[in-house]
């Protein structure tokens, strides 16, 4: 992700004919939140004075009697949204106290920035690298309910071994029997790998979004479990961008990704969280 200045952001807005700016920030659990402003409202004052929002409505943030919070943009994160119908610039913001202007202690991006600055101050190193392996399942359907007289959850993926008796594939064609056996998804070629085209679309969109990806492949679990590996110093921003880009990608038939964290799995297969860090460490500056 190349460093940008506010002037660079305004140049993107002008050159790309941007209509809207999508204001994005993280809640305490790390889920990206957003609201949209028209480009006519996006000027230098946004970088100088910030944008206000109600912090009492965000998980883990403020009480109702002290709800006012302030957002200040991070120009480095500016990027055109590849999936919105209207030309939209996505821009991540840091959360600040509106009175003291101090970085907000419950903003995950501020916590990550503070940790990186502390690392630099110790003289141990000047850069922290994080290798993220994003893993998730792809379901053809997800349903769940919890009511007074009962509850249930059900997930389905046409590639799952439990669908060997299904009459049809996801596209309506006859079932050809190419299913991923339990713990057998690492990593046979098509036609057992049902999701290679979708995974290619995800990889292409992620590369276009500025990611440097090392690989993408099916993981051990049945039912469609892609994985791709990338590394970066901006660990707090990139997983949310990765999740948005991956789940917005789709095949011509409309199949989309579903992060595994959205539905707890009790299948007899290996389950992974949405993102698993791997060890990639090193020193980039001499003491």
Automatic annotation (TrEMBL):
One of its GO terms (biological process) is nitrogen utilization. It catalyses: L-glutamate + NH4(+) + ATP = L-glutamine + ADP + phosphate + H(+). Residues 16-100 form the GS beta-grasp domain. The keyword Ribonucleoprotein does not apply. GO terms for molecular function: glutamine synthetase activity. SUPFAM superfamilies: Glutamine synthetase, N-terminal domain (SSF54368), Glutamine synthetase/guanido kinase (SSF55931). It is an enzyme of class 6 (ligase). GO terms for cellular component: cytoplasm; membrane. Residues 216-265 are annotated as: Disordered. PROSITE patterns: GLNA_1 (PS00180), GS_BETA_GRASP (PS51986). Keywords: Ligase. Belongs to the glutamine synthetase family. This is Glutamine synthetase. The gene is glnA1.
